[in-house]
Design goal:
The chain is mainly alpha-helical. Helices cover 43% and strands 4% of the residues. The protein contains 3 helices and 3 strands. The protein has a 3-stranded antiparallel sheet with strand order 1-2-3, with helices on one face. Strand 1 and strand 2 form a beta hairpin. The longest helix is centred in the middle third of the chain and has 52 residues. The termini are far apart. The N terminus is likely disordered.
């Protein structure tokens, strides 16, 4: 246990140390209040900083557009012209092919009805009786004693709104069934060519 009376040197030393530390703190506050300067705001440094230049890139930058050159436009025009030369004729041929297909389907259906008529009545209708014998019981010769029609609900017209032609006996078989085509006359080429059951 330390006696306060026996150590006067220590008692005098502690006030001196306290005074010294107080002077140091006072000096530090004095320097911080007068000499220390705060750093400028970050926004001020960003405004004063020079803009960075972006180097040229070989890749397109979004937001920037480039016009077409004359050569590129000419190449596109030539390609479109080639496609038109190939596609347009094929598209124009489609309606003609569709009409021919429809005629062949109609002829096949009529021939089937004629065969049923012959199965019941032993003979095909005559030229005078015609295809109407498939819709209503014919009169005249040859008779149709076992007529069980109608064999067709109605007589179809060809794609050019003309009736199908019937001939018995035919030049190509027992019966000839045909369409004169777009011109409505025998012969012709293309759409005007005759289309008959002998072509099926």
């Amino acid at each position: 246990m330390i006696d306060a009376q026996s150590s006067p040197a220590q008692a005098t030393t502690m006030p001196e140390q306290s005074q010294t530390s107080n002077c140091a703190v006072s000096a530090w506050f004095h320097m911080s209040g007068s000499d220390l300067q705060l750093a400028p705001p970050a926004t001020q440094s960003l405004r004063s900083a020079p803009l960075l230049s972006i180097p040229h890139s070989p890749f397109p930058i979004p937001g920037r557009t480039r016009g077409f050159t004359l050569i590129e436009i000419l190449v596109v025009v030539v390609i479109l012209g080639i496609l038109a030369a190939i596609v347009v004729p094929r598209v124009m041929e489609r309606p003609a092919e569709a009409r021919v297909t429809r005629v062949k389907q109609d002829l096949q259906g009529i021939v089937t009805a004629l065969n049923l008529y012959k199965l019941d009545n032993f003979r095909y209708p005559s030229n005078e009786q015609g295809l109407q014998a498939l819709v209503a019981k014919p009169s005249g010769s040859p008779e149709a004693p076992n007529w069980k029609g109608p064999y067709l609900d109605r007589l179809p017209m060809d794609p050019w709104s003309k009736p199908y032609q019937y001939q018995q006996p035919g030049q190509h078989g027992e019966v000839d069934l045909y369409s004169y085509g777009s011109d409505g006359r025998p012969g012709g080429d293309g759409d005007a060519a005759d289309i008959g059951n002998w072509d099926n």
